[in-house]
Amino acid sequence: MFMNIKLIGHGDITSKDFYTSVLIDHILIGMPPGTLKELKKEDIKTEDIRIIIVTHLLGESYFDLPMFLYHEYLRKRSEPLVIIGPKDLKKKVDKLIKMAFKERIIDDLKVSFLDAASIQNTNVTHDLYFSFVNLKHKYIKNCYGLIIQNDQTSLGYIGETQACPGIPYLLKAVKHCIITVGDDDLSRINLMEFKDLASKFNINYVPVGYPDAMSKKINEVKNAKLIKSGEQFYI
């Protein structure tokens, strides 16, 4: 079975473009600020999203999750929802909801929070197996990359992270990977590090959100393909 991938945004905090988030079938990776509005713009039904993955506990990764959950609470969501991320994610989201809306709503929804650290080659859906890989991003204790596999293919996801041993470990395990590349930002893989990785592994997809000069350099790297917000493809 093929995976249907759609890029929802391709920018970061310094970009005029919406933050990067990735929809894989019914799985959403990343819930940065503005995600709910972006999903509505793309005519993606929130009830079709069954799994949300948060890779690290910085605002760029999960600050729209309270908005999404409150939206689902207002529309009386009946579909189950699994949220996977660092172990303190539920506590932080619950606090943000209480601050924003003066209510505690998580227990009224069919939401399950799972600790990413406990998921290794785990059958989270009927046909997909997930594994989380420890990565490094600034001072964050728990930062993860993701491996998704089915009977036909495998996909890696490497978001905001700097060079660390977990990256080659993850890349060895997958046929395709979506990876974020930085410029001179020490908290992200830089262009030289990316070129070195791409010469050794299959790194296929890089979100565009860069200045034109940087995008051109990335596009010249072997095994790399820039993808734009709204772009949809299958692997």
CATH architecture: 4-Layer Sandwich
H and E order: EEEHEHHEHEEEEEHEHEHEE
pLDDT < 50 stretches: none
Name the structural class.
alpha/beta
Strand arrangement across the biggest beta sheet: 6-5-4-3-2-1-14
Distance between the termini: 9 Å
Radius of gyration: 17 Å
How would the global form be characterised? Answer: globular
CATH superfamily descriptor: Ribonuclease Z/Hydroxyacylglutathione hydrolase-like
Top keywords for this entry?
235 residues, alpha/beta, Metallo-beta-lactamase, Chain A, seven-stranded mixed sheet, five-stranded mixed sheet, 14 strands, 24% helix, globular
Structure description:
The structure is a single chain. α5 links the parallel β10 (154-158) and β11 (176-179). The protein is 24% helix and 27% strand. The chain has helices spanning 35-41, 59-62, 65-74, 89-101, 166-172, 191-198, 212-219; strands spanning 4-8, 21-24, 27-29, 51-53, 81-85, 111-115, 122-123, 129-137, 140-149, 154-158, 176-179, 205-207, 225-227, 232-234. It has one domain (4-234): Ribonuclease Z/Hydroxyacylglutathione hydrolase-like (Metallo-beta-lactamase, Chain A). The protein has a seven-stranded mixed sheet with strand order 6-5-4-3-2-1-14, covered by helices on one side. A five-stranded mixed sheet has the order 7-8-9-10-11. The protein is an alpha/beta fold. The radius of gyration is 17 Å and the shape is globular. The N and C termini lie close together (9 Å). The chain contains seven helices and 14 strands.
